Amino acid sequence: MKDWLLTAGLAIAALAAFYALFVNSGSQEPPVSRPLSSESGPNGYLGLVRWLRTQQIEPVVLRDRFTRLASVAGSAATGNLLISTAPHVYPLRNAEVAPLLRWIEAGNTLLLVAGLSDTPEWAAAVETDVKLTDSLQQMTGLRFTIVPADEAADAPKRRGPVPAPNQRLPRPQRFELVPTEGPTEAHPLLAGVTRVQAVSEYPTGRWRAELDATRLALELASSPQADVPVLWLARAGRGQIIISAFGSVFTNKLLGKDDNAELLANIVQWSLAAPGRVIIDDAHQGSVAFYDPQAFFGDARLHRTLWVLLALWLVFVLGPQRLRVAASGSRPADLTAFVRATGGFMARVLEPASAARQMFSLFFTEVHRRTGLSVQDTPPWDWLTAHAGIDPADLARLRQLHADAEQNRRVNLQQLHNLLARARGSWLRH
Description:
- This protein folds into three domains: 1-25 and 298-321, no CATH class; 27-150 and 165-293, 3-Layer(aba) Sandwich (Rossmann fold), CATH 3.40.50; 335-429, no CATH class.
- Helix content is 38%, strand content 15%.
- It has helices at 2-22, 46-54, 94-105, 121-124, 132-140, 260-271, 293-297, 300-318, 335-349, 352-371, 381-387, 392-406, 413-429; strands spanning 60-62, 81-86, 109-114, 142-146, 173-179, 196-200, 207-211, 217-223, 228-236, 239-244, 278-281.
- Strand 8 (217-223) and strand 9 (228-236) form a beta hairpin.
């Protein structure tokens, strides 16, 4: 019983150590749907993809870094629309900035949907994009800064405690995007758009965009609730960048609300030019074509599989096991195998000349014993020539091989064996 308990304890300890060292258990909470082209959940873009297909526009999914943007299959050099959503699961790398800007300036459009003035549930779950504002500035040339709470228009009206930034709101906060009023008619991007809806499941702040010295941006729309601009258009070479401070406006749960779909249709119609394509950036939201170790070790299916294997292993270790059948008694030695093994060993360690000399010595001893001749220092070549009936050619070849062996030259042992065998047979017949 003690042995059984000791085995069980050691087995469980070994598996626990393996699991702790090699498996990142991560969170077992249900994953939050993300803005991906294949996602049918509330935060996905599958509705956007299906709408594009109804317009005979087949979108292209980007599952690689922006360094591969210019070589996306099916896309043209100009007239393309790239839809990228931030914050990113895979943050923007410095090596991606220059290829992205070159691609835009060549005559393409970037639609950057950034969760700044709203904080959707998928944006709150992103913990890796700690340099979000830096990435946005690199991509757009605009510097985004948060408006302090005491500068907000509704600051004196606030009542009650302010929720913690990482605390989910009891009810999602709703925002509206409305075109900016001006002396001229609305921009083509906002034709037919009166109100676009956004929601935030977590507390959010008010952001404003500051222009740098090299970039001009047009403020297209603002939010009455946030009292700040939330939609900008910036030129970049022959292309343009459209920035939305609301990250939830084109997700499945809101695409059919108010004029959200109308805004999307205007953006596609205004920025797309044949034979350009709509490209959806899935890579920076976690759906990549390259290997992702964090996604692999964080997959719940891996952990379920490991637990099943653990259970099966414990059943095998702790369950009744049939003992092996006792080995039978002594077995007779295999003489052929012994000779073959010995010969193989000798062939590997014995030089051919030494083996040939030994073979000749045994042959000459046999000649002396069979014929009654006295043992001499020299080989009995004369007797073999006169009495043995050996073929003269074989005898000449034997003498040559003997001379080679005596001078420590390489000898063909197989040929020597055959010659000695024929010599023995010759004198037995005579």
